[in-house]
Amino acid sequence: MWDLRGPAQPRQQFSGHAMVVTGLAVSPDSSQLCTGSRDNTLLLWDVGTGQCMDRASISRNLVTHLCWVPQEPYVLQTSEDKTIRLWDSRGLQVAHVFPAKQHIQTYCEVSEDGHKCVSCSNGFGGEGCEATLWDLRQTRNRICEYKGHFQTVASCVFLPRALASMPIIATSSHDCKVKIWNQDTGACLFTLSLDGSGPLTSLAVGDTISLLCASFNKGIHLLRVERSRGLELQEVAAF
Questions:
Q1: Could you tell me if 221 and 235 are in contact, meaning their C-beta atoms sit under 8 angstroms apart?
Q2: pLDDT digits (tens, 9 = 90+) for 19-62
């Protein structure tokens, strides 16, 4: 852990996993850190002391991503065993397992209100390669699927409500494309091809009109949402 306004040395180090750390999530009050690894283990840490407070291990649960649910003690986790788990940080126990998908789940994100979550799948040739919207509060069932990528979908994010009249999400894929979707209907609203970028590995909301997208070949792409001719994405810079 680093202090952005402090010295160059790390402020805290959290050592406890036996293999590469593939997910981390900070609690809403910033007092706890949850980490996941390819060692099938989740660890819960005290941010202030760096001490491990709890650990949980499930066979074949190779963690791909973690996301803390806003204002709740729950952590959402995707896995190479094709499942999505909801963990209760109070004791680090599994609170719910969503219906298993047919492909590895690569990423997850929770909506700002904590009512829904979205996950995405690996795949090739259009098999798999989808994102899935889930109900997080009531039925915890699948709500909608977003299909149209032809390779692994590596990232999925909820976009700010100010961008459009309907709720929208964005996905990035190893097929070099970023897509914007109508969250409710599953319709693809726009596709941006970042030719020559190589696989797109992650996606993050920058501000109310921009996204950051990481790629294998060309670093980080700054994308801007344009609404002058409907809903469009444009690349404005690369780093």
A1: yes
A2: 999 999 999 999 999 999 999 999 999 999 999 999 999 999 99
Which residue type occupies 151? Q
CA–CA distance, 142 with 134 (Å, rounded to integer): 5
Predicted structure pTM score: 0.93
Q: Any idea what DSSP says for residue 151?
A: B
Reference 170, options 153, 185, 195; nearest CA is 153
Q: How far is CA 86 from CA 45, 71, 137, 165, in A?
A: 18, 14, 11, 30
Bridge partners for 127 per DSSP: 124
Can you tell me whether residue 154 is helix, strand or coil? strand
User: What separation in angstroms does the CA of 52 have from each of 75, 143, 179, 212?
Assistant: 16, 36, 39, 32
Q: What are phi and psi for residue 162, nearest 5 degrees?
A: -70, -15
Determine the 3-state secondary structure of 130 from DSSP: strand
Place of tokens 């760096």: 50
